[in-house]
Amino acid sequence: MRGTSQASHDAVLQEFDPVVTAAGKDGIQIAEHLFMVVDALDSSGSLRRALSDPARPGKDKAALVTQLFGNLDQRAVDVVAAFAAARWSEEADVASSIEDAGETALFAYAEAAGTIDTVEEELFRVERILSSERDLLVAMGNRSASKEQRLALLEDTLGGKLHPTTHALLSRVVGVPRGRRVVTAIEELLERTAERRGRMVASVTSAVELSAAQRKRLATILSSAYGRDMQINVAVEPEVLGGIRVQVGSEVVDGTTLSKLDDARRRLVG
Questions:
Q1: Which whole-number Å values give the CA distances from 120 to 72, 107, 127, 183, 231, in the listed order?
Q2: φ, ψ of residue 241 in degrees (nearest 5)
Q3: According to a count of CB atoms within 10 Å of the terminal CB, is the N or C end of the chain lower?
Q4: 82-128: per-residue pLDDT in tens?
Q5: pTM for the complete prediction?
Q6: What is the pLDDT of residues 217-243, one digit of tens each?
Q7: How far apart are CA 13 and CA 21, in angstroms?
């Protein structure tokens, strides 16, 4: 999002966060209702334009939201009305912001229930499974398949194995990708989870599983370097042979044996 949209997005979500934090188990229903609004906006260009029209008074747009969606949870209606009353650089940014509000409701529910660690771990595990199983990733991201077919595949693969919050987040990513790639969308969810916990994410690839002591030492080193608490997510890939590869945001530190062999090969060829 660009300037005006980002400012509106952040301001409304800041006001919404304590509302869903206090909502407890209702967070899942609030999220479902917000996603229903997103789907309505995605299917109607005229509605998107009506709620993002800068020439239309904010109170009129908020009144339209109440008129159209007044049967939904009042907390969902209120935040959609707040988004509609704000100003936007692009009309599509309204729906994207409401989508983020739905995810925020799910994260707040998991946090209130004390299960956000579980959700984060499960999201990371699913991201690694999809990254390593190409056929499954392609099938789940197949836009020519129906929403129901993609969700059935998710259920067949992971049904009953996930926390309800994780399942709700992944059902949205797989069923209604909204132009996002599945793995990219899950990575974004992981970043939002870490941010909610005041952490940054370090994605670590290692030839062997790291011990608790090694994870703690690595987290300490990275936290010192970046000035933030660090969430360490480790993927074990024996083909890297040895060493570790660490990625924090766009920065990558590659110390794997495979990387060193590649460097040596390039030097020989050069």
A1: 29, 10, 11, 14, 10
A2: 75, -50
A3: C
A4: 999 999 999 999 999 999 999 999 999 999 899 998 999 899 889 98
A5: 0.80
A6: 888 888 888 888 888 888 888 777 777
A7: 12
- Indicate whether 223 belongs to any domain: yes
In a domain, 147, yes or no: no
| Structural domain count, the chain | 2
Domain end, chosen from 86, 112, 138, is at 112
Instruction: Specify the amino acid at residue 160.
Output: G
β-pairing, 229-236 with 199-206? parallel
Residue 254 belongs to domain spanning? 198-270
Which residue in 209, 171, 216, 215 sits closest to 189, CA to CA?
Answer: 171
